[in-house]
Design a protein that fits this description.
mainly alpha; 2 domains; two-stranded antiparallel ribbon; 28 helices; about 0% strand; globular
Length: about 600
């Protein structure tokens, strides 16, 4: 690769593609490899390059994110669940490694932005294919007909589509290549129907906030408004036609009818995308005829950005009266379909999730309960039977798990990229990158975006690229220390991947009924991840299936020892023991999960 600036593009695109292909990266099956790539490249670059410089905003972003990850790691000292906190640290290393690569390595802002946009469009195309060809992929009945593949969560699909749409606006307005502008103009024909089929109201609000940001920051607001208007026409037509595809937005009359409607819509979307390719010519012809709007002063633009983010993030929280009551009320979207869901004010139990998180914070006001522990408190205190692993708000969950200092470090890190606007606001693509990142910050206020690496990596890549545009440069000092840290992150990546692979193999073997093979894989997993209870859970079930009850009891005790606040280990122990030990284990199950299923006598 002759141009070293393409290395970052490859790193980011591979990370996005790999995590998207594994269900958005929610499970740690690809984390090790995704961490290893940027960590190894950064290590090599630090060895080769004598003088390493970074943008000031980029350096601030990297350092503050490192401090936030360090505080997350420090919570291992007081956490209610060491295994859960270790998983959070592993995921944070994924984000830190990618941001570090973008900040420290040379990059081409246009190429990287187009790369992120291209992967985003690819993910949305894959999702739309599953919706438009239901005869082959089904109609997502379990999700209320909301598009959730390939990321595994409908709101994440909507948020990713919103980020991609804002990047497309930037490329269509700022790129000099007409071919790139044509591609970007056609991208919303895919992205906006994806957002519609996801039925994500939060993503729609985030997109609106992002549009406000890009219009406030762009030096030529008139031109960017023309881009939005002209490129938005084919995309708007696509959304209208998708909304009228009744067989695809709710329970179909027959699967054949849905498949027929899907094929027709696919052809129309393709034709609209071809039509959108000509949008740059119309923009170029229209822009000179319009008066040039004055550029907003820097302070006014920054104020608009702050208000857009705050309004988008807090809009639901400030609803009052009947709207607030409707927000708290559940909605049966499975029966009502996508269109009804889009215009509903129901928060789908978010108020309950947030209330449990705030109760957790009240119980641990100084340091929090430890990263990744929210589900322990939800399982114990939930007002209804549904399970939840996350609080559906990055900021509220961070407050509950990491305390006020942890939240402050996270907010400072997430805000650092905007420091680049002081010097880079007028540079191409900077407004769009800021808008796409702002859309993520808005959406993360009411959902578990941080736990979906594909979505968060796309947003943090936009943020790091924005930060790298800062014209103020700083020399990276203590290079040996930075290099040693990169080596440690790379080594940690190998450990993470080996442990994850072994656990996955053990679970797969157990599921297939190969209990002896499951025991071997679980033994290997316990060596690579000695803190994890999963290998011992597999051993418990495999040994019980083989009839070795004594060994299964010992393994269940190991599960409890490694994660005593997790009710599932106590449940297995109660199922395998008798007498006082069984009574004690059953009492722990009732305390940690009052809604647990009954324990049957052996």
């Amino acid at each position: 690769m002759r141009d070293p600036r393409y290395v970052v593009v490859v790193i980011v695109c591979v990370a996005l593609g790999a995590t998207a292909a594994s269900g958005g990266g929610y499970l740690p099956t690809t984390w090790g490899w995704v961490i290893l790539g940027p960590a190894a490249v950064v290590t090599a670059a630090l060895f080769v390059r004598r003088d390493v410089c970074a943008a000031r905003a980029g350096a601030a972003f990297g350092m503050l994110l490192l401090l936030a990850v360090a505080w997350t790691s420090a919570s291992l000292l007081w956490t209610d669940s060491v295994p859960r906190t270790v998983v959070e640290v592993e995921r944070d290393l994924l984000y830190l490694a990618t941001v570090g690569a973008i900040v420290l390595l040379p990059l081409n802002r246009l190429t990287l932005t187009v790369g992120i946009l291209a992967v985003t469009v690819g993910v949305c195309v894959a999702g739309l294919v599953t919706r438009l060809f239901p005869g082959q992929y089904g109609l997502d009945v379990d999700s209320g007909y909301r598009l959730f593949r390939p990321l595994g969560y409908w709101n994440a699909m909507g948020a990713l589509a919103a980020i991609g749409t804002l990047l497309a606006v930037g490329v269509a307005g700022d790129a000099s290549s007409r071919a790139l502008r044509a591609f970007a103009s056609a991208a919303p024909v895919v992205l906006l129907p994806t957002l519609f089929f996801s039925a994500s109201r939060g993503a729609a609000i985030a997109l609106a906030a992002g549009i406000a940001v890009v219009l406030a920051l762009h030096a030529d607001r008139g031109r960017i408004a023309v881009v939005v208007a002209i490129a938005g026409v084919p995309a708007a037509v696509a959304v209208v036609l998708a909304a009228q595809a009744h067989e695809l937005t709710g329970a179909p009359s027959t699967i054949d009818a849905a498949a027929h409607e899907g094929r027709g819509l696919a052809i129309i979307l393709l034709l609209l995308a071809v039509l959108a390719l000509f949008a740059p010519r119309l923009v170029d012809a229209t822009t000179p005829l319009l008066p040039r709007l004055p550029r907003l002063p820097h302070r006014v633009a920054v104020a608009v950005v702050a208000v857009a983010i705050a309004f988008g993030a807090l809009g639901v929280a400030v609803l009052g009266g009947k709207a607030y009551d409707a927000f708290r009320a559940p909605t049966s979207f499975e029966q009502r379909g996508l269109r009804s869901h889009l215009f509903s004010l129901s928060g789908h139990d978010r108020s309950a999730y947030w209330r449990v998180a705030l109760d957790d914070f009240t119980a641990h006001p100084a340091l929090g309960s430890g990263a990744g522990t929210y589900d322990l408190y939800w399982t114990r205190d939930r007002p209804f039977g549904a399970g939840a692993l996350d609080a559906h708000s990055l900021y509220i969950e961070s407050l509950a798990e990491l305390g006020p200092l942890g939240l402050a470090l996270l907010v400072a890190a997430l805000g650092a990229p905007f420091l680049a606007l002081r010097t880079a606001r007028g540079r191409p693509l900077v407004p769009a990158l800021a808008a796409a990142y702002a859309a993520y910050l808005v959406h993360a206020a009411a959902d578990w975006d941080w736990e979906l690496p594909t979505l968060t990596l796309a947003a943090l890549a936009c943020a790091a690229t924005l930060a790298a545009a800062d014209e103020r440069r700083v020399r990276v000092r203590a290079r040996p220390v930075v290099t040693a840290f990169a080596v440690c992150v790379a080594a940690a990546a190998v450990v993470v991947q080996q442990g994850t692979d072994a656990v996955s193999q053990a679970k797969a073997a157990l599921g297939d009924g190969h209990n002896t093979e499951a025991l071997r894989a679980a033994t290997r997993a316990s060596r690579w991840a000695p803190w994890a209870p999963e290998p011992w859970l597999v051993r418990t079930d495999a040994e019980a299936a083989l009839g070795n009850v004594d060994a299964a009891r010992r393994s269940a005790r190991e599960v409890v020892a490694k994660d005593p606040r997790d009710w599932s280990g106590w449940f297995r122990l109660a199922d395998l023991t008798s007498g006082r030990e069984r009574e004690s284990a059953a009492a722990h199950v009732r305390e940690l999960n009052p809604l647990a299923p009954p324990i049957h006598l052996r």
